[in-house]
Amino acid sequence: MNPISLSQFLIEEQRAKGQIDADLRRLIKVVASACKRISIAVSKGALGGVLGNLGTTNVQGEAQKKLDVLSNEILLQANEWGGHLAAIASEEMDDPHPIPHRYPKGEFLLVFDPLDGSSNIDVNVSVGTIFSVLRCPEGVKEPDEKAFLQPGTRQVAAGYAVYGPSTQLVLTLGDGVTVFTLDREQGVFILTERGVSIPEQTSEFAINMSNQRHWEAPVQRYIGELLAGKTGPRGRDFNMRWVASMVADVHRILTRGGVFMYPVDAKCAPKGGRLRLMYEANPMAMIVEQAGGAATDGRQRIMEVQPHTLHQRVPVILGSTEEVQRVTAYHLEQS
Ligand code: F6P
Ligand code: MN
Fold this sequence. Notes:
This protein is 31% helix and 24% strand. By secondary structure, it is of the alpha+beta class. It has two domains: 6-193, Fructose-1,6-Bisphosphatase, subunit A, domain 1 (Fructose-1,6-Bisphosphatase, Chain A, domain 1); 204-334, D-Maltodextrin-Binding Protein, domain 2 (3-Layer(aba) Sandwich), CATH 3.40.190. The structure holds 6-O-phosphono-beta-D-fructofuranose (F6P) and manganese (II) ion. Residues 113, 116, 246, 280 line the site of manganese (II) ion (MN).
């Protein structure tokens, strides 16, 4: 069978299933081509002169890497003139970026984390781009922050690119999850897996263990039981992995199962959590749910959380359904 490119896949989705309209198809293509450019910049490493800090901080107070800012620029430039967007928001920008008046406007809102896990860039470990697509509320001509504050259930598409040994694009249009792998010679994303499905059960977990002393009781209980292994209530051993790039950790879970947790703890409680709802938790939750997994903030489905600010943070528990349900039940028993 001939390999199917991302462009062909999108046309197929548009024609056969009536799943998406032409603007959404163009939007995904543009995001994918921006991800290709980011992939090239990332893979140049030390030769590209793009490693290290820029000496600035973003709205979250985090040091910006040169590649954070470059990736943000690449995504902005690629997307602002295409005519499919009403506004763009990003982890790296305090406020939404309006579409310049000289360009046509469309009906979608795009929100992204241009380079997730960027603390891993300088050590040559996988990083990624996460994105979420919403519809601009009807009648809103100049979308501001409020236009973006929609729960994840309203996402019309979500995806991420992982820049690892190979570059892959993982996409959902609300009807399953499809994986594309970048053919570097041709510069084309080729479909390599349809209908991704996360195993329901798992023996692998991902959490930053150095925060253990700050965790709440339900998380202490859950992780304690996993660590007890064969001799504990779970009756089997569990393995742990933590890349510290959400994209890479979620990609592993999508591929071979597992549970990923960045719970709220005493350290990040004042901010509400560590990960950002709009451009980390929501798109990943949509992908994971579309692959048959689950995603909660410990108490409720992440995609049902009503956002109040663009850069809002949220606790995240996602992956294999049985484990996510168990951790969530421990939280609910307590409250
Ligand atoms: O974007 C935030 C992020 O870098 C995620 O990609 C990752 O899961 C997490 O932070 C890592 O946090 P920590 O440095 O506390 O392990
Ligand atoms: Mn991130």
